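Data availability (excerpt). The following record was deposited with the supplementary files.
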Amino acid sequence: MGHNRGMFSQIGPLEIAIVAIIAILVLGPKRLPEAGRGLGKSMREFKSGIAGISGDSSESSEKTAKAETKTD
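Predicted structure:
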């Protein structure tokens, strides 16, 4: 079997063009930039939320370890 390059390894320029044309037809050329901004903003918030969750778990582990050493 070949290498697994990820979920988007099979998407080429033709597929991107087809998705863009469908988006223009559905949203219209005037609402497309607004939809793109909204999608980008939501992706940034999602990524920061995921980073915050993983950062919070490491911070809580450190606080637990510090609390355990203080009680001893």
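Summary of structural features: Helices lie at 13-27, 32-71.
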